[in-house]
Target: DNA-binding response regulator, NarL/FixJ family, contains REC and HTH domains
Amino acid sequence: MTCRIIIADDHPMFREGMLRTVQRLLPEACVEQAGDLDTVLEMLKTGGEVDTLILDLRFPGLTCISQLGELRQQLRRTTLIVVSMVDDPQLIEQVMAMGADGFIGKNIAPEEIGQALLAIRQGEVLVKFAPSGLLPLDTNTLTARQQDVLRLIAQGKTNKEIAKALDISPFTVRIHVSGLLRSLNVPSRAAAAVKYSASL
Model:
């Protein structure tokens, strides 16, 4: 029987890579792609039951982690797999608490992603990612958006205030903060602010 799989990611290259991985592992699957949450929700209304939803965490339309819980309620019989660059254990724990069946880091090898997908679809509750940013990096290696977030952290702004200033969701700010702490190799926002001030 053909199973229906949706790959939901806003990066076409990653979607294409994931599509090839899924087609190689599950040649009988009907694989569809979506670049934002509205498209996913439309797809869920048509075309029959979805066997597996592979969803990026930093995804247009996904503005807070509670939406994962809503998707879980809506898709009780669907395997929900979150695939992301995020490697913050606390955030991943929250993702799993919202009912995700598994979490796969985008920074692991393609064959490992494939093995993890199969294991999760077969009922294994799996979190597989490779912690990155083991070497201390200076602020010049940060993206422009990360530098904006870091500058506002150094000014003592809260996530909510940063979100308002940059016109992004607090959830997205949390993901940027998580990436910042990793990139700067520091344990806290305060330490990141100190490191930022020292670099000026």
